[in-house]
Amino acid sequence: MLSTDLADLKAYMADNPGAVIEDVARGRNVTPRAVIEALPSSMVRMGGGEHFAAAMQDVAQWGEVTLIVHTDDAIFEFTGSIPAGEIGRGYFNLMQPKGLHGHLRHERCAGIAFVERPFMGKNSAFVNADGGIMFKVFVGRDETRALRADQLARFRQLADRIAA
């Protein structure tokens, strides 16, 4: 990306921090990771993808969160507890028979972004090797729709460990 394009993207994200990452990326022909990294530094911290399993094990202890998978064709949302998982046969396997389960290609995770911005609160975005977003995990909300303080503390503690 040219430095003028990067400066323009950073200015845009400073003025529009709540913009949908994938929409900005598509509109500017850049990766979602480039958009995340263009957010003001006070809103994002990046950790390495090698922390994928540890991050997922931690998130599995948070309780009810919202996991989002955003593709060009759909936005899938799951609200509930993320199951514990383990690495086996080349995947990080979510270990429960019902609800959210499946097999994640953990080795394609190139980074974990800890994002705190106006749009929908606090989330972790797991970024793939191509600069795309594998999925996002949003801190849960309580019965008054406020962010859960216990999860927000866990989110920040995980960011401190991974993105130090």
TrEMBL record:
<protein>
    <submittedName>
        <fullName>Coproporphyrinogen III oxidase</fullName>
    </submittedName>
</protein>
<dbReference type="InterPro" id="IPR010413">
    <property type="entry name" value="HutX-like"/>
</dbReference>
<dbReference type="Pfam" id="PF06228">
    <property type="entry name" value="ChuX_HutX"/>
</dbReference>
<dbReference type="InterPro" id="IPR053733">
    <property type="entry name" value="Heme_Transport_Util_sf"/>
</dbReference>
